[in-house]
UniProtKB/TrEMBL annotation:
Name recorded for this polypeptide: DUF3593 domain-containing protein
InterPro entries: DUF3593
Cell inner membrane listed as a keyword: no
Keyword Plastid: no
Transmembrane segments: 6-22, 34-53, 73-91
Any matching Pfam family: DUF3593
Keywords per UniProt: Membrane, Transmembrane, Transmembrane helix
């Protein structure tokens, strides 16, 4: 059985493929695409935050509220950008009718 850490690392490859196809298609709203790439920033922040939580607090990231919340802000911002990007595209499409 694979550990959760291994599964987390392996999940990056399909996501990178997803980003590659989205970028290549040229059909994804720019702001939404930035949001999808922002998810990688979230991952990049979460990994060191998890290591810090383990080394300093001897606990998992999920149990250190201020650290976990700080990392989750990046995911929230990414999600907001995705939503705003697609919202902007829908409004633009509706106004061009």
């Amino acid at each position: 059985m694979l550990s959760k850490d291994t599964l987390f690392a392996l999940s990056l490859f399909p996501y990178l493929g997803f980003l590659w196809f989205l970028t290549r298609s040229g059909q994804t709203p720019r702001l939404a695409l930035i949001g999808f790439y922002g998810t990688l920033v979230f991952v990049g922040v979460t990994i060191p935050a998890g290591i810090y939580a383990k080394m300093v607090y001897h606990d998992t990231l999920a149990n250190i509220d201020w650290l976990h919340g700080g990392a989750e802000i990046f995911l929230t911002l990414s999600n907001i950008l995705v939503v705003l990007g697609f919202r902007q595209a829908v409004i633009s499409k509706q106004s061009s009718r």
